[in-house]
Amino acid sequence: MTRQANCNSCAANAGLRAWTPLGTLIALFLSGCTVGPKYVRPTADVPAEFKESGNWKTAQPGDALSKGKWWEVYQDSQLNALEDQVSVSNQNLKIAQAQFLEARAALKIARSNYFPSVTGGISATHYHLSQNRPLATTTTDYTDYQLPVDVSYEPDVWGRVRRTVEASRSEAQATAADLANVELSLRAELAFDYFELRGLDAQKALLDSTVVTYQKALELTQSRYTGGLASAVEVAQAQTVLETTRAQATDVGVQRAALEHAIAVLVGKPAASFSLPPMPLKIPPPAIPPGLPTDLLERRPDIAGAERRVQEANAGIGVAKSAYFPLLTLTGAGGFESTAISTLIQGPSGLWNLGGAAVETLFDAGNRRGALDQAYARRDQFIASYQQTVLTAFQEVEDNLAALRILEDEAKTEEAAVAAAEHSLALSITRYKGGVTSYLEVTTAQNAALADEVTAVSILTRRMEASVLLVKAIGGGWSVSQIPPV
């Protein structure tokens, strides 16, 4: 006979005998029974390997990414300094930390039900009785002093308390994983915004240098116009290209200011008192070690949190099933009672009592059945949520691996395009100086070269952003072993 069957058999007898001393002993003996299904971790469809490949490598035990501070892989001191401020100053992270502490406190409350409830007090009451009451005696005035201690205990016969503690523990662990996921998301958002800002710095530096070049071209055109070698139209064209580029350089400042303000909020500082010096983005992203596909189940805090909530819901089924069995309660009281305070603490003034009760719900119009069905549905919901989280995790990894691979190829192509555009511009300027062509050809070449250079900067920025998203997708340096045991 299985342990579950034993529990069910015990329940039938315990409800009849719990009110006797023998029944009390049986109830205490049965406190090892636990109703409800045993938890089994849900399965997930995990691929044998990633489809995409690119600027990444299989994780090794010595990889920096596995040590927690994954942002250090970029070797950027300014980014490191900003990331160190997230855990100290970010208000959203403090909210998540408070939620974890709240869940841990709820676990303490659930655990308290393992133990009896004990109350004590002291009272003094003076009575004046009616002389005309039924069965009246000569005594009409007296004082009653009491020093009672009451004990109430509900034996965890069917495992309701154990299942409740299991659910609370799983919720606390899930909340700890949520905290880790919030921190990972905030740090990834900071790195994402930071590299986008540095990309804008690179674009601004490019536009500023281009403005200097275009200013020299305008001066050359004006000089040729003065010498009768160029027309007023060519001067206007050179002026137009120069001012347009200046406007583009100014417009970059709007986007940069917004990103700087966003970073200020992430590190918990007022935007008015925070600034970052310009630092153009120049180097490509480093190789990111995502590890093996199965590592995602250990390295993604959102997956760990989803799995913990499956166990919480599974424990809820046991709590719902325990409602089908009698509620057993043991009570006891002791203390002293006397009409005179001088004799209160004496042997003859002592009193005590012991008792027990068993209460079984005979009819509830389907309330317990509904609660049990609800518990099963809730578990199925969290199983599906867990499996969906796993699928989404692998999609995010594949997306960013593909982005890194494709953008790396695009960067090489764009590098060749920039070289060709610069060569074309140099030829056009030479032809213009030699009087072979009009300034329109130079303007066209200038626009093409600038567009290619801006595109190259944009691709580099997108590569850095994709690498940050890949780190986030593989859980950063987090590990499921970091969930506190609580």
What structural keywords apply?
single chain; 486 residues; alpha+beta; Outer membrane efflux proteins (OEP); five-stranded antiparallel beta sheet; 10 helices; disordered N terminus
* Approximate helicity band: 55-70%
State the domain count: 1
Main sheet: strands, sense, barrel: 5 strands, antiparallel
Structural class: alpha+beta
CATH-defined architecture = Up-down Bundle
According to CATH, what is the topology? Outer membrane efflux proteins (OEP)
Q: Report strand %.
A: 5-15%
In round numbers, the mean pLDDT is 88
CATH superfamily: Outer membrane efflux proteins (OEP)
Straight-line N-to-C gap: 34 Å
What CATH first level would be assigned? Mainly Alpha
Shape: elongated
Tell me the number of strands.
Answer: 5
What is the number of helical segments per DSSP (H or I, 4+ residues)? Answer: 10
* Low-confidence runs: 1-20, 59-66
Report the order of strands and helices: HHHHEEEHHHHEEHH
Structure description:
The structure is a single chain. This protein has 10 helices and 5 strands; from the N terminus they run ααααβββααααββαα. It is of the alpha+beta class. It has one domain: Outer membrane efflux proteins (OEP) (Up-down Bundle). Strands 1, 2, 3, 4 and 5 form a 5-stranded antiparallel sheet that branches. The longest helix has 67 residues.
In short:
This protein is α+β, with helices and mostly antiparallel strands and 486 residues long.
Helices and strands, with pairings:
Blueprint: H1 3-17, H2 21-29, H3 77-89, H4 91-111, E1 117-120, E2 123-128, E3 141-153, H5 160-226, H6 232-266, H7 296-299, H8 301-322, E4 327-338, E5 350-359, H9 367-433, H10 439-473
Helix pairs in contact: 1-2, 3-5, 4-5, 5-6, 5-8, 5-10, 6-10, 8-9, 9-10
